[in-house]
Amino acid sequence: MLPSISRPPVAGLSSALVLLVFAGGSVLDAILRAIYHYSPAPGQLPVLLLAAVPVFIATGLWICLRGIKSLAGTSLLQLLLATAVGVVTMASTLPLSWYLGIGLVLWAMRLRHNVLTWVGTSLLVLAAGAQFEMIGFSGVLFLPFVLTPPVFLGAAAYYQWHQVRHTQVEADIESEQSTELHRNRYGREPGH
Question: Where is the composition biased (Basic and acidic residues) (predicted)?
Answer without folding.
Answer: 179-192
